[in-house]
């Protein structure tokens, strides 16, 4: 995407939702899902990959679309999984370079030698449309339903958000900003918001899942670090009683492991 008004609008959507001062809004939900992840790990540790993906997809879907998946088998969580396994591999850099240099290649049939990627792109295109449209439509419908059911006919998006009936999310923040700035409901504006939300969903799904998976791998292969982190967690929990974001500054060993793991991002 070239630098311009559209690019700046994308950046604005990202900044207003995920800037440092706005992140604490999502901590209660993240804490709830983290406890859910730990419970899942206790019940079925052999399904580590599924549990991690359920957690990361839930956190991302919630902060982007105000959607709370019921389980790993949730329809939108499956959509996220398909995006990572089908769409991301189809976006290979080498294909982008070739198509950029020789755009006429796109007109060759998929049966032509070396053109099998066109079939992969067709499948990826279908899933891309799903992950762009379905969660976005859910967020819009949820906002409209709350306005119609729980508020007077002329209630604003701001009234709905302040009442707590709609949780903060990237889509709701964008619609709220549109009203605050007196921007008319415009198809191009909504399309940019949809694209920005889809980009956040896609990018965060891959990096968050990779980060957590790598963290667990490091704990398994580095027993010394695991023992130090475990001992420190036990000591801190003895004082605080239960896990929360308040105890994080006291978990220095865990912080060191996370910092070492940051390169996966």
UniProtKB/TrEMBL annotation:
InterPro entries associated with the record: Cyt_P450 (IPR001128), Cyt_P450_sf (IPR036396), Cytochrome_P450_fung (IPR050364)
UniProt organism field: Boletus reticuloceps
TM helices/strands, residue ranges: none
Alphabetized Pfam families for the sequence: p450
Family statement drawn from the similarity comment of this UniProt entry: Belongs to the cytochrome P450 family.
Cofactor needs: heme
Gene Ontology MF terms in the entry: heme binding; iron ion binding; monooxygenase activity; oxidoreductase activity, acting on paired donors, with incorporation or reduction of molecular oxygen
Keywords noted in UniProt: Heme, Iron, Metal-binding, Monooxygenase, Oxidoreductase
Name this protein carries in UniProt: Cytochrome P450
């Amino acid at each position: 995407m070239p630098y311009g008004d559209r690019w700046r609008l994308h950046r604005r959507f990202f900044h207003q939702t995920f800037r440092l001062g706005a992140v604490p809004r999502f901590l209660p939900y993240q804490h709830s899902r983290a406890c859910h992840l730990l419970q899942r790990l206790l019940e079925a540790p052999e399904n580590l990959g599924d549990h991690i993906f359920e957690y990361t997809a839930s956190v991302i879907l919630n902060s982007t679309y105000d959607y709370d998946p019921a389980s790993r088998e949730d329809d939108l969580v499956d959509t996220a999984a398909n995006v990572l396994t089908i769409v991301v591999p189809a976006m290979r850099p080498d294909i982008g370079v070739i198509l950029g240099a020789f755009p006429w290649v796109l007109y060759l049939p998929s049966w032509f030698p070396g053109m099998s990627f066109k079939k992969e792109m067709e499948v990826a295109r279908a899933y891309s449309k799903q992950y762009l449209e379905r969660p976005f439509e859910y967020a819009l419908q949820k906002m409209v339903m709350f306005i119609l059911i729980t508020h007077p006919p002329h209630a604003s998006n701001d009234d709905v958000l302040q009442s707590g009936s709609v949780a903060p999310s990237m889509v709701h923040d964008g619609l709220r900003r549109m009203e605050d700035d007196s921007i008319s409901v415009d198809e191009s504006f909504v399309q940019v918001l949809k694209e920005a939300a889809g980009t956040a969903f896609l990018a965060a799904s891959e990096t968050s899942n990779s980060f957590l998976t790598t963290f667990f791998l490091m704990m398994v292969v580095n027993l010394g670090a695991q023992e130090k982190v475990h001992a420190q967690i036990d000591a801190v929990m003895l004082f605080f009683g239960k896990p929360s974001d308040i105890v994080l500054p006291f978990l220095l060993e865990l912080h060191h492991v996370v910092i070492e793991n940051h390169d996966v991002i």
